[in-house]
Amino acid sequence: MLTSHHVAVFILTFFCYVWFHATRKTFSNIKDDISKEWTPTPCNLTWPCPSPNKTWSSHNLFESYDDAKPFLGLLDTVFMFCYAVGLYFSGIIGDRFELRKVLAIGMWLSGILVFTFGTLTQWVHFYNKAFYIIIWGLNGLAQSCGWPSVVAVMGNWFGKSSRGLIFGVWSSCASVGNIIGTLLASQVIDYGYEQAFLVTSVPLFCTGFIVFFGLVSSPTEIGLSDPNKIEPEIKPDESVASIREIISDDEPLVVGSNPSVNEENCDKNENETKPIGFFRAILLPGVIPYSLAYGCLKLVNYAFFFWLPYYLTNNFKWDDSKADDVSTWYDVGGIIGGIVFGVITDRFENRAPVLVGMLVVAPFTVWGYERSPNNVAINSVLMSLIGIFVGGASNIISSAVTAELGKQPAVGQNVDALATVTGILDGTSSIFAAVGQYLVAVIQTHLGWDWVFYSFIIMIILSLVCLIPMITNDVKTLWTWLKTRLTSS
Questions:
Q1: What are phi and psi of 347, to 5 degrees?
Q2: Tens digits of per-residue pLDDT, 52-94?
Q3: Could you tell me the pTM of the whole model?
Q4: SS3 category, 275
Q5: Phi/psi of residue 460, nearest 5 degrees
Q6: Which residues contact 260 (CB under 8 A, 6 or more apart)?
Q7: What is the pLDDT of residues 228-250, one digit of tens each?
Q8: Is 448 left (phi over 0), alpha (psi -120 to 50) or beta?
Q9: End-to-end CA separation in angstroms for the chain
Q10: How many CB atoms lie within 10 A of CB 218?
Q11: Could you tell me which residues are beta bridge partners of residue 274?
């Protein structure tokens, strides 16, 4: 039964991650502007620089516009690598400490670091490559506190029966954050790229206070029932001793003892939880296949996230504001795909068959987009289709599937595993994404954008292959059903 507390948790965790992603999207949206700012003005025009080795001012970090591109890819890689490493630790921390505190501290730190990276350095005219790398890497570590914490909180509040729908809607928080980050950046970019970082870092920092003082991590904290608790089946003829053994194996009922004391101890044991070990979490059923599948998929998803505005600007010669606005259609598609296919997966005990179907279609959407003409309407439609099947599948795995892996029966009733499992899936996938962002810059420089899209198709196919073991039982069941139907006819 949904209460006002469920609605409050949904909204609060949703906007937590909206602002996390808005700050990330800001960097991808201002890549073209920041490249121009970091290179001498003559190098940005059609003629070559008269003196390539000359540094015109302290903020000219590179000799040409093209020289800045690998460094931007390096920043993306550093961010994603630190984010990936941080996820492994933040997941473990989330299962051992209060989730609201872990989440709030991550938001405060990230808000300060984003402000320092993009706004403060520009205000004080301080430009240094090493400093940018360090700050952006630390930001990756700070932001890693976000996803495991919000998924764990949502998993605590919402049960399995409606996760496809609820998590399908809720997982759009990343896409909504991308859209908000894009719109805010496009509105203030004319006043300097530092303003784009300012309008996203401040809300992120302030929302951290709301989380710290207002978020309830679990319904049991306020006396509500746990939606993930599996009640034991008790047969009518079972004795009192048998019932007690079901409730608590280590505290058998003692005849003549004080009932109130026994009930108190029983409730205490039921509510107490212990965190799962890291290696045990890795070996849980489905964790490794989904981690690898999500890794291949997230490489593609984050490549679009980081490089799409840059691609539109350079390939079609659109201005920055136009490219930013058009790139939001990828996120719109991700929202639609996550919700529609999330509802469909609610009708299956295993969500893998639906995901496999999405990934069968996804390569064709990328292949079609690679051939998109210089037309805003056609480009937006094709981009939305990629978002539906690639972004939608990514949203389902990162939310509904992850929540179920962390709350599956193999974990045990009184064990905290959700944040750890979320950290493993998101951490592993982020390592793939970290390597991918640098490869995008290298492949594009040496082979062109066509081969970038071909590499996306290959990664989607590999993601599909990783999920095949998760549907073997479904395939066997379907084959048995077909044989029965054919034999009877």
A1: -85, -5
A2: 444 445 567 777 667 777 788 788 888 888 988 888 888 778 7
A3: 0.70
A4: strand
A5: -65, -40
A6: none
A7: 665 444 444 444 444 444 444 44
A8: left
A9: 45
A10: 20
A11: 415
